[in-house]
Batch of 4 targets.
Target 1
Amino acid sequence: MIHGFIKTAAVTPKVQVADPEGNAREIIRLAKEAAGNGAKIIVFPELCITGYTCGDLFLQELLLESAKEALLQIIRETRELDALIFAGLPWEKEGKLYNVAAVFQGGKLLGLVPKTCIPNYGEFYELRHFARGNQEADAVWTDSGDGERDYIPFGTRLLFTCEEMPGLAVAAEICEDVWVPDPPSIHHALAGATVIVNCSASDETTGKDAYREALISGQSARLVCGYIYANAGEGESSQDLVFGGHNLIAENGKILSRSARFKNETIYADLDIARIVGERRRMTTFFSRTDAVYTEIGFHLNKEETKLSRFIDPAPFVPDDSQDRQKRCEEIFAIQYMGLKKRLEHTRSRTAVVGISGGLDSTLALLVAVRAFDSLGLPRKGILGVTMPCFGTTDRTYRNACELVRKLGGTLREVDIREAVTTHFRDIGHDPEVHDVTYENSQARERTQVLMDLANQSGGLVIGTGDMSELALGWATYNGDHMSMYGVNAGVPKTLVRHLVRYYADTCGDPELAATLLDVLDTPVSPELLPPKDGVIAQKTEDLVGPYELHDFFLYYVLRFGFTPAKIYRLARLAFAGAYGEDTILKWLKTFYRRFFTQQFKRSCLPDGPKVGSVAVSPRGDLRMPSDASAAIWLKELETL
């Protein structure tokens, strides 16, 4: 529960039709097993205490009374469990029979949620037995599990809120409720529910599993919630239907856990309530309703650290699946070159000027320029690839820069800036033997001046090469490589730049070009502003500011979800276990926060450039941040870790 995580379970017991006592024993056993595995919210299927397929036996008084007694037994024997539990049964109220989810915890029945949408088509004939549940909360007098008669809330608009975990609010719907145009879960979410549970008995037909999975993942996405779907399985009558289990747990559009079909299983998943709350906070179009009156029912859980079983992706910007990754790369290339295409058309530019260093970022910018020119039907000779060797340039990067421009059909232009920078040092009185920030930045600014003047000379645009990771860290020379006329890489993190270049190498169909691109990928990331040692790059960026895979991980969770430093540190330790030690992760996390805050002034005046993903740093779009904001509270929390 610490950091907003809570473990949940969807459980399919093997029921005996019309045997509440036997079913109670199985439900108790499985509830204890789930709680023993850390689950704090445990969901059982629809009508699981009697079995869903009782048919006209639901009209038998003995079955109804036995079901109620079985529920009380379950409540009594799970009273020591630190979990909120949902289980389905038939319930008679004022002469009508309802299909309800009983909600209980700590030996007390907290509420009864009736099914709203009663199907009576195809294989379903529930209207023969059950009435539609009322929306407004009513109540029934019954034994709540402690042997005394209590007033138990009864209705669809019940919200179960955890006293120890702000943000955790749970509501229920039953099976068909989620398949209709206006599901109760919509109203639950707008009333504040962050977790929806569904006690279900959905039979199996060909292809239904794919639709069911899309339905649950889609509902969790549009409601920005966790969704726990527990389905009936083996044990239900097979007189006319087969029930295959197929439990699902989803969070904001992603299926976190699924069970095998035709097998009774318990599945688990850690829901991130803080992530859900943060996402709703960010979305101004997610608003609360004021016209629906809900009854709020508190419950208690022990506050402890959830042992996480969910996969923490160390590369959140990069899809795991190779096919998805290829599709994403093609999509990003399209966004980049379409943005540049529009800008070239609008400005009637005849050339695109790209500073080519032989590194990853300038290579990607050049590839984007090629696609933009091809889409406009312009000759690639209009792409002016400019290499500007200086004190730190190595033979390897120089050779790759020249080869890339030639192989892609651009126009190569070499401007050696050593003499110009040396003259500048003399003009400002700087000792060229002092390799400080002035020594480095003078080279970057001279290169930018050359590019800008060549663009003016040729009637073109300077295409920016810096990526989003560099912008987040401020790893750019102000008014140097920080500046351009259109920054095609501004929305692409460094970890994704690598995959884009590799994708181009794999798909270009030119073995020689591919070989050069692969050598660029194998070259250490460096600004090459310090003299090489024995002809080899002496200045490696990741030695100075930290590994980009760590910084991209930090960037994603800081900007996308607004997580605290402590939570990001915890996630990073799990994601990079075996790759980086805890001290190393903490060191670079401190560096990230310090640089992220102090370097905002560079992002406040960024050139135009296309957004490509859910995280961006444009001052005109996703990141409206003051340049003089204090990082004190974030750094203070880091000091406590």
Target 2
Amino acid sequence: MPDLPLVVSAPLAASLNGPAATRLERVGISEISVVAPSFVQGIGIVAVIVMLATAVLLWARIRPGRRRFPRASLLGALLAVVLTQVLVVGAVSARANAHLGFVRTIGDVLAQVRGSGSFAGGPAVLSLPEEPTSIPTSQPSPMPADAAAFTPIKGGSDYTGFSKATVTGRRSGVTQEVWAWTPRGYSPNDGRTYPVLMMLHGDPGSPDGVTTALKAASAMQAAIDSGKMPPAILVMPNLSADSRQTAMPDCADVVGHAQVGTWVQDDIPAVVRASFPNVSPDRSGWAIGGVSSGAFCATWTAIMRSDAFGYVVAMSGFDVPFTGAMSTNRELKSANTLSTLLRTRAHQRLRMWQMAAKDDTGTADLRRDLPSAVPSTDTLEMVTPQTGGHSATLWRQTFPTALSWWGEQLKSPVAADAPLSEPTAEEPSSARQTHGLSGGESATGAGDGADTGAWGSFREVFTGIRGIGVIILMCIVALALSVAAIAPWRGGGFPGPLRRLRGLGGLLPGRARSAEADEPVETAEANELAEAESVDKPAEAAAETAAEPRGARESRASLEAPEDAEGSAPVASPDPGRLKKARALLRGARPVGARLVVLALACVAGTLAIALVSNRIGGFFPTWSIAIQDLALALA
């Protein structure tokens, strides 16, 4: 067997834990939670307050009839609008993140931003498990020191049956949370043997995010209650061991980095066996799975450590590593590609279930190359829905199918001491007859009736969620609404501009030319402006009234309220001064409300534009319906 360049010697990269990170840790900013209800609600409240204040500022800058502040205030108004939009985007992102669990602290956010620099000093050095030459006789016995105190998690039906513990791995030195789910009625002394499914989160992600995205608690219990799988334990370790692992997660041990490989392969099984003494003692009852990058890591780990895991449950994974140390150069990528490892690395028999939607571009290499690489000793069930993208909606819909598949495998478990595969650089001739292919149905109920040809391409560009035309249009809408929120409105609100537009066609009578602006102004609008100025300039108003002809004054006086007419009998009525103040308040509230509506629409359009750009780059949601389902769940 030819030697594979699995390890590349090179200088270690500069750490992210530099002076800036040290300063953050000193003041504790990096440890501030971004998923805490107080943080999520706080940023939402701040966004609403700033939006209201900005609407008042925009109205006060140019009031109807006169200019309140100089043109220099335009810069302040522009900055206020930008700040409002940033806060609204932040509030929506915080709400979604709190549900999906992508990042948990400000330090995690900074690590994601700095992710590209994790290996800037050169390719990393991987420390990999030795290739087996014989079948292990048995698994190491659990040590009492590995036991952890798991405490129940409170938070609603999504967390029923879940408990968690903060664990320090005795072999890896990693300190992180481990989540565990036990079925209804579980007892460590009930005389049963429980299989274990270990699920790995994606990048970025957390056990919390996988729990809610998969509806894991209800899916596991439903599969058990229906008899599709035996009572089992679900385990989810947190893989974000440090800032570099959070930014560029690894499956393997990287020299100089957190030993995540040892954490997953050795520490977690030892902790589970010591804390839950009635779990399966060997690989015949252990499965490892994951979503997205966690799916890649699960398959990679099973191949590397087939002595610990006999089954793989992978959802929306990929064949070639795209993150972490394995992705830092072509040599490491090639050596750690899953289809290559299946052929070239000796391992015990594996049973694999892989799900990859056909409209998920990131999984194209997996769908194409993995089936033909499966050796005769292994089996593969490849499920390829027509639609679903790279979304939590698809994972949630297909997770019960994965559990049913695993339950079927456990009826005739994989052997604990199965023979090793024979490595070969050639594609096995029997590969296509030893793995089962299934799927082809849409997880969302849609068929394979996508539009083709020029019309289909046109529709995708201008109506599809990833279409560049939709993105450009939404950016234009966001910009136009932002400009509209800042620009002066002479009518004080929506009615004025609308009446002027209709008046251009001569639809409304009684229009006159404004002497100052030389543009059509409706009589009612002119009266409104005159009344607004009369409140601020009583002396000028009195002079104008005195200059009116007597008949005009009497005619106008006859239209005033009865309490203002001379000689009228006193009646119980509100104070005229209060009525004027109320009318003035209403006149001021209307344009402020109009500005607020336009500003809110601008924030919504801006948020949607950013989301569309992110989705096009990341390739998460292929259709509007899937995106709406995911976002509705995240923002509920």
Target 3
Amino acid sequence: MAVQPELEMTLYNSLLTAATAGTYTFKASHVLKDREGGSDIDTDPHRLPVVEESFVIKAVEFALDPSAVHAHYPAANASGNYRRVLPHVTLNRAILPWERDIKGKEVPSRAPWIALLLFREDELPDDSAAGGLTVTRPVTELLEPEPGVLGPDLPPPKGAESMMCRTIDVPPRNFTEILPSEAEMHYLAHLREVRPPHQLRDDGEVLTEGEYGVLTTNRFPRTPGSYVVHLASLEGHQAHLPPNDLPVGTLAVRLCSLFSWTFTCSPTGSLDAAGLLQNLVAPGNDDPEDLALRLAPPQQPVQADDTQQYALRRLRRGYVPVSYRPMTGELTFAWYRGPCTPVTAPEVPLAPEGSPHPTADHALIYEPEHGVFDVSYASAWTLGRSIALADPEYVTDITRARRELANRAATLKALARDPYRAALDPDALPAHHAFTELVANGFAATFLHALEAPQLPARTRRTPRLDPQQPSLSEPRYQALLQVTADRNTHAMPAFLDRLALLHGVPFNYLVPDPRMLPAESMRLFRIDPAWIQALLAGAGDTGIHTTHDLLLDPLLRTSVARARAPRAPAAGLLISSALVPAWPEFEIVATRGKDRPVEELRRAHLGADVLLILFDAVPDQVSLREPGQGIHFGIGHGDRISLRDLDPGPGLGAPLREQFPAPADPDTIFTRYTRPATGRDPDVLQLLGTRGLLPALAQALDRRELTASQFALELVNARFEQLLLADDTPRSVAAP
């Protein structure tokens, strides 16, 4: 699979300007003072006048161009399981959240003047369906609304009567319960500096080099249904923000909405990635051997006889019983095991390479003690021949190669009978032969004698075929000439056998002979039986042998094919049957061996709509399954826990610590203790500060006195879920980098 380039991203607390938006006045005056006494010695008639100059710093205030929004998550009109996600917006103008002043005094640095607010259905009177509806009004109606509606306390700008803005009216209860305090707003915004090549993440945003302002909501979309997100201006509302009380008689608080989008939270309509990954490896929690590809044997009887023990041993080794009819005609059963085995397959004394066979009988294994056949390798040989015969290009190539070899051998044999011709190079051009005869000694006398001799009657001569009893072709010179012919005619045969060695074209029921070996929502690990692969390739390689000549010349063709093949033999692999397969066609699976030495992935194939096959070139010690990266978004992980990240400066900054908050070891500590309910529903609004605040508790878990806005954002970056499979150990769930 393709590897994305490295992402270099830096988070900062804020991007503060020396002066916020507004009107500023410079005053300049000259005063002449006494050097010794310091008194003003200017007189009014001669004093220079004071000079005043005003200028305006303009910034977004009541309207925002949609192009200023770089990305947002969830996507507009998306539907999925976003219960653990804090929606966020990324702004192209990095300074935008801080270029106006909310005039707060609760935090030492300036809090953003805009906030990202999340509303559910039936929470906004003018948008009860959470469809993103707003009311377009003149700015004057925002600043001076009707009685009972609370607007921002701002002086009307010049030309406010003709300026339009999008507004929402928030009921007092929703405003008090949902909006963050001014101190909390400081932690819901940060600056992101990105330094990667331009890249597009799966289901996420385009990560482009630059600086961006980022704002997150303080609310999770916990309840299924439709949601609308508003980027709202809170300038002029600093006196109304929690924990301040709204004036008595307030019917609504009018906010200016600069940008908005909608999405749907549907937990049942999307996949629970972490839950499905954990379910795949659940059988290995009690016994890692339960993840092996084999038919689960029934419970062993307390007193099993020899026959029952023999059958159980076969099942544990990956065999399944199949129907079999021997040449004697009766219907019985035999054992079959495919190339994917749960144990290391023993060496089998199969026929050596270079000894072709016309049938699969040579690969049958008979157990006289139990009177049962093992048809595994015979089935592989027959399958290899069937796949080869079904490929027109391969059949054409191997038939042509055998024919060319036979013709070449017959030609060399005929030449060998004539001492004169045997001395010539059969690969040389005819003109070369003629020139050699012309310059030979005695050619003139021989030519004159031929002209004077009487003509003989015409006779049809047939080139004799190769006589296998004559050993002349075993000479090194002729062997080299035949090998050249074989090399010239292999064509696509090596590539075909390379693909066949990686099980291309092998039907699924040969890999998994019983469906119960790979049930739905399961993963099975296996090793590769090299003898089975050898039998499969032998079946394909034995195609087209019809005569004794083909048999004698076959080693030459096998040598040519072997030299042209790529030595890529699989050693192990895994099979996954899950709904994750169609949902994530390219999710990341990383295998390592020894000290983080990567194991090469030789093949990844979708054998069905929900079945994935992966082959490795070695048996790994560790396999990591990671959900696909979905851009940069914020929230909590599976089980309502935060996967903690390293905050210490250095190369490990931002790396997962393999720890979770709240700690799973403390069942009494749950994440909902750091949330508060809104409008009587499930607790879904973050409580960031205070005795039950998330920030102090998270800082304590990280052994720090306090967290900054950028550190808090880093901890909330939603880590990909990672399922680890370790050698001789039970599966482990962690957060991926």
Target 4
Amino acid sequence: MSRLHVGYVRKAIEDRFTGLIDMTDKARAQESKQQEAFLSRGLAALAVQIEHPCADRVAALSVFDGEDDRGLDSIAVEVRSPQPRICLVQAKWSEQGKGGFGESEVDRMFRGLSMMLDRQYSKFNSRFQSFVPDIERAYESGTPKITLVLALLRTAPLVPGIRDLIEEKRAEFNQVEEMVDYKVLDLRDFHRAILGDAAAPKIDTKVRLDGFIQESTPYKALYGTMTAPDLADLYGEHRRGLFARNIRDNLDLTDVNIKIRNTLLEQPEHFWYFSNGITMLCETIRPIGKSVPGKVGDFQLTGVSVVNGAQTVSAIHRAYTANPDSAQFGRVMVRLISLEDCPPGFGDQVTTTTNTQNPIEERDFKSLDQVQVQLRDDFALMLHLSYVIKRGEALPEQDHGCSMMEAAEALAATSPNAELAAAAKRDQNLAGLWEDDTYQEIFGSSPNAYRVWRSVQLLRAVRARLKELRDGLLWRADAAAFHGDLLVTHIVYRSLNTRSIEDPDFYWPNELKKVPELVRDALAWSLSAIDQEYGKSSHIIAAVRNTERIERVVRAALRGLDSGNDAPPLGDDYQVTEVETRGRQVNAVTTLIATGRIANGAVLEYRPYSKPERRDMAEWLAADATRSLASWSNDNGRYPLQWHADGEWYSPSGLAKEMRKQASGVTSSVQGTLRWFVPGEGSLDDLALAARLDQGLNVEDEPAAD
């Protein structure tokens, strides 16, 4: 049967994506290889549609499989939801329905994820570059939830060794919080997806309700308790098809989902009390045998769909799979609503209304605390400023006040306890700061309004300076400047004169004047400390969110600042300079032509190198694919690149300069050899250096390259 279903998926890919998926890089490949690559890319596009419903053309454009895909084949970025999400797909096509996935694929996939998190965007191919602005927006909207999707045309589960390896690598990214997860889409998932809505409502199943009660007026419904094992089995059998009518599906990496899972594993006996329950719509509900209300009843359901509680069902399945001995004791309240006598559209009303209730958060309770009320009054009476304490209230202009959220973040950053800065970075809603003990440590019993407002001003000044610096930073340094805002604020605060910060007569602007220089030095010392303590392959996010790591980084950075020594210079791979030369730079064009390292006619890709370039050029490059391409010639001297956009010949730097000017009107000297890449091999700069090393030539103190 699997070969038959493979044929269905193949036809769906051909019908949807023929002519839409970019196959130009495979133009010279054998026809069989072209077809295999197309089907693999089509599978990656189909996986994106499953995870993020979109039009065929959008799904096709999500594919960047090919040279320099870094073990990833397609991407979808969602930045409009409260929690930004990034979906990364690696797809494996198999005519036999046995798509393989081994250790090498796992390693490449996670290395690619590391590069993306470290903002090494130029390591990826040109098709990936158009997604960089959305990725950066996702980073800046809060901690993104990242899902690695293994799109495998197979029915067999992953072998235990591979699954264990994935879990091990996943754990490395989740040392501080559950940021990265993975899921496997197999032949069954793709088959359901291509059947579409027609297949969705046809799930028929049997369920058992303990202590069930029946409602008959005006419509038939049942409610009772189901066990975690029964719900886990239900999801295991029908999987995502259970959520066909749910407006959100199961968001596997939401904080709510993680808390549900942890409750079931750690306190299964409390799960019934802590859970809001599950609502299922059914076409019909029929009792099996004798069913007495208040007792145990078995029921046959047709056309069943979970419309509220998808996260609960998914979390139960994951928890039960991970630890059945503990999770088996969990129970949950379930409502079954029959649609057989309901008016048209009633099911949609149930789906919408059960999913649009705003949850109450811990910070909402804190807004009622007398401490916050007093701060609001003190801001108004003593500072003539606004202090907003309730969620949903209009925020004041920056010069006119702040919110309780911003105050909590600023006080966490300026606390003597650096661990509070780490706690604040773990959740975009600052969930860790509202826990009673932490909240008390931050605000105290009678916070001083001057201290609160001045801490907010400091945090704003630090962030403004970091934003300025980021335009000249690359990769890990850029990530450190973004994710390390509270870390840097903490270090800067401890370097200022703050003894009189609560004194109304203290002239705080004198201290704020020191911020720009201190921010630069604090960032440099912090990044140096992270690299030395944990290595250049460590994750910046872990360093700023892990309580132990942030303490070590703070101590090292403060020692550096107090030493009186100049801050350690950022390496050339961490910053962009005006002319962008380096001591070990060679004359790349001359070297590459002399060694014949690049074949005549080879097509090179342009990849933006710095944040300002990405900001200014992304849309311009995406508007015309020829703008990112140039052909190489070993016979044209200093001008080896023929730009596909106009057919003219340029030097690498000259062309990069011309492109920036056309895209944004900015004229600046740039090193083109860092921006032009031979796909799958590296930049011109990389290739020239490797060529000289291969020949045993000196690479020290060479003249700057074009």
